[in-house]
Structure formats: C-alpha cells, structure tokens
Amino acid sequence: MPATQTEIAIIGGGVTGNSVAYHLAREGQRVLVMGRANIASGPAASWASAGGVRRQGRHPAEAQLASEAIQRWPTLAQELDADLHYRQGGQLLLAESDSEAEQVAAYVLQQQSLGFSDVRLVNRAEARQLAPGINLQVIAGSYSPADGQASPPHTTRAFAQAAQRLGATCWTNTAALALSAGLRLPIRTVALQMLLSTPAQQRILQPVISAVSRKLSLKQLDDGSFFIGGGWLGDITPDRRSYTTRPASIQGNWSTACELLPAVAQQRIARSWCGLEAQSIDDIPFIGPAPALEGLTLALGFSGHGFALAPTIGRAVANLINGQTTIELASLNPARMTHFEPGQIERFISAPHQHDYLE
Description:
By secondary structure, the protein is α+β, with helices and mostly antiparallel strands. It has a single domain (8-177, 185-350), classed as FAD/NAD(P)-binding domain (3-Layer(bba) Sandwich), CATH 3.50.50.60. Helix content is 29%, strand content 21%. It is built from nine helices and 17 strands. It has helices at 15-25, 45-48, 63-80, 98-113, 124-130, 152-165, 247-260, 310-321, 342-350; strands spanning 8-11, 31-34, 52-53, 91-95, 120-123, 140-144, 148-149, 169-171, 187-197, 208-211, 217-220, 226-229, 235-236, 243-244, 269-280, 286-289, 297-300. A four-stranded mixed beta sheet has the order 5-6-4-10. Strands 11-12-9-15 form a four-stranded antiparallel beta sheet. It is globular and about 60 Å long. The protein starts with 7 loop residues before the first strand and ends in a 9-residue tail after the last helix.
C-alpha cells in the first residue's frame, strides 16, 4: 500500500464516510478514506440500501439534519457532477382502517411539529391519485411531497469521486482494522432484505409508499421494476461479512407488496439480497467525539436510515472536526452510550432484530 500524508483518516468507505471526506477535502484538508472492500460493493449497506430519501418518520434527534438534507438533495447531482438517479416523487404512508387513519392523522401533526410543514393528511381519493392502483382498503395517508429516492451505489461513488477530485486519497480492500481501545459500542449488525421485480411496462408509482400495518417500503424505478424493502431479515454469517436470505422473508415481503399494490403481482421476483446494516441500541446514530478517546470522531449506527442524511452528515461531521458549532448533532452525541449498562448492551447485541426498516 503506498505511503501517503494525511491529516484525517476515515475508516469506512460507505456513503457517510465518503460524504465526510468530500466535505473535508473541499475545505482543503488532506483526507484518507480506508474501506474494507471496493466502493459501494456488496453486501455493504451503501450497495444494498433501498435508497429512500425521506423526512417522514424521523426521530426528533434527526429532524434538523433531515430537513437540511431534503433541501440539498435536488441540487446534489449538480454539485457532485454525477447522476444519482434521484427523483423527488414524495413519500406516502397509508392507512387501511379507521383506527389506522386516526393514527395517521396524529402522525401528520407530529411531523408538522418537527418542522415538516408541508407534510399533509390525504383522504382516500387523494391517496389513490398520488398512487394509482393501491388496494381498496386504503382510506387515508400522510404525504410528504419533498421526499423521494436515489441510488445508494451511484451516490456513494459520486461522493468518493468528488472527494478524490479535491485531493482525497482512497484505499480499498484494506485489512480489517480492530479498535482495541476499550470502547464497547452498543451496535449490532443486521441483514436487511431487498427485492427487485421484473420491469413493468408502465410507470404507475411516483412516490415511495408504505403502510401503517405493513413491514414495507415500495418504490418503482425508472426502468419500471419495483424495489421492495421494509425490514425483512436474512441471516448473517458467523464472520459478519456476508449473509443468507430467508425464503420466508422473501415470500412475506413480496406478498405484502402485492397486497398493497396489486400491480406488483403481475411481475415476478428478479433478485433478492441483503445489506449489512449497523443498528444502534436506540435506533439513532452515534455522531460526535468518542467517549474518553481523544482525536476519534464517530459517525455510525445509522440503523437502516442513514442514506438520506448523508449530505448533511458529511457537512456536520466536517464542521465538528474543524471545531465549529454543531448544535444539530447534540442529541446524537456518543456520550449517551455510557448511559447503557453493560448487561443491557450485551442483551441488545445478542437479541433478535426487531427494527422496521422503512427506506
């Protein structure tokens, strides 16, 4: 491996790591990105993610970051000089019963309280206009028009290439680095499943859709294929570097997509795979100085919903490293990990995965 001079070393060559590198490099700093594999290669999350770009459903600790990111996504392709396969088609959370409609109405008020003022409650007719062909049980929805979707591999590579044009260095296929500094991270690896259908002849679905009672994230890509996620699991290999899919998860995920949007059933499953995601103990990332480890800044544990935040996380972490005020990261400070008891952390790491992934 060639020698290089660097001011900042970034361990992890995913979309977050490369976004941080880009934002530091454009400030003139010498940056080295070290990745265990090639950029945006499987089964890393930045290769496998469904690519949702959303504010809806965010934890309040992420709300400010999400708002900034949503404003930036429409011009990000121009900024990075790359096609990100971005589309601002909105995001629609659907209710299929009266009780779910009440939940969605309260949910809309909560989203608006977080500053997402354009999120609105839609009735049955409006929902069907936004997403033609959804099942007849749908009676209401929460619609976030500024949300959308993009390609995680294209976006990750775009950040990496932009960083390198600005002088950053990238090492791929590096050996795994062990952090033996006594820091026990309350994070576990989960294998989250994705499905891709054969292409439909018509584009009928503009927004990303999900539903209150379903583990589902459903979008249609530019070629007409349906991209399906929602938190269905695969199994991680013992070395935590690969996975095997579960037939029951594949069938369950496909069935619920066909039930919500019957047109999906006219296609067949073309591919199924899993991405390895880092889930934190409280389902929000740890971003900030590592407790009791001077010079180490953490940005990890995005729990399956970090892709949409990547432009803002890169900016915020770069500001943090440069000593600027980052109030927007206050509630994500890694210092909170010291509040968890060791036994609680061990139980979390060994317990079955329960998180719903909605990207």
